[in-house]
Design a protein that fits this description.
18% strand, single chain, 7-stranded mixed β-sheet, alpha/beta
Length: 271
């Protein structure tokens, strides 16, 4: 069993925490855009009060361990590994509770090239524990406003995990898919599940718009987020998102395997 001490060492060695690759400049830009109400950065969260850039920075310092000094404007961000470990423990508790109830679950990612294996392992373990892994709205079109304009995607599922593909892209059944922060895929999936008469998920697991979009609609949501994605942490602070794990969400997929083992062991879901 992977100990917290061993996992902490891995987090630092793989740069999942500690000094991460996320540029400080990009994080500050995201904090500024969140404060300005840019929907591409809100990703489904409806702020309950005005947020200044300084407010967002201070929240991220509290939740992630980044610098709260506005004079720190360049270099790489830092994530406190102790905060990552504590959040992983809380994440595992939510998984264990869902497994005990045999709750229907929905998993989705905006980082299919990096995080698909992590979520797919959770889907397998939850399914083995008696949870129904939902796959609503398979193949549905989703129009998403990106930094490059409006793009049409198709909702797909790989190993029980939702992702989007560019319209017309071949379905290989593998992990290929598009990177997105949008909450529209999860809204599409939840609407389709409701239209079909259910079941609806009792837990949504993912990142980006998947947790923000689901949590804002009142579904319990847990997930992962980097220092340049303030919306999930604001959602957590407002009570819309249950657990957010701070880590670099764009390292090599193999580096997330120890996190998978740790979380499944803590949730008593190891197979």
């Amino acid at each position: 069993m992977l100990t917290p001490r061993a996992l902490r060492a891995h987090l630092l060695a793989a740069r999942l925490a500690g000094v991460v690759a996320t540029p400080r400049e990009r994080s500050l830009r995201s904090y500024r855009l969140f404060a300005a109400g840019d929907p591409r950065v809100l990703i489904g969260i409806d702020p309950e009060r005005p947020w200044r850039q300084r407010d967002v920075m201070e929240l991220m310092a509290d939740r992630c361990g980044v610098s709260a000094d506005p004079r720190h404007t360049s270099g790489h961000d830092v994530i406190d590994p102790a905060r990552t470990l504590a959040a992983l423990d809380a994440f595992a508790e939510r998984l264990a509770e869902a497994a005990r109830r045999g709750a229907p679950v929905l998993l989705g990612t905006g980082h299919p090239h990096r995080l698909l294996d992590f979520y797919a392992a959770l889907a397998d373990a939850l399914s083995a524990a008696g949870c129904v892994v939902l796959t609503p709205a398979q193949g549905r079109c989703v129009d998403i406003t990106t930094w490059f304009g409006l793009r049409t995607y198709n909702l797909d599922y790989v190993r029980g995990v939702a992702l989007v593909r560019e319209a017309g892209a071949a379905r290989s059944g593998g992990g290929t898919g598009a990177h997105t922060h949008s909450p529209l895929p999860v809204r599409t999936a939840l609407a389709a599940a409701a239209e079909a008469g259910g079941p609806l998920p009792e837990l949504v697991i993912g990142d980006h718009g998947w947790v923000c979009g689901a949590g804002q609609l009142g579904f319990e949501a847990i997930g992962l987020a980097d220092t340049d994605d303030p919306a999930p942490f604001v959602g957590e602070a407002q009570g819309a998102v249950s657990v957010v794990v701070p880590l670099d969400d764009a390292v090599r997929s193999v580096y997330y395997r120890p996190l998978t083992r740790y979380v499944l062991n803590r949730a008593c879901l190891s197979q």
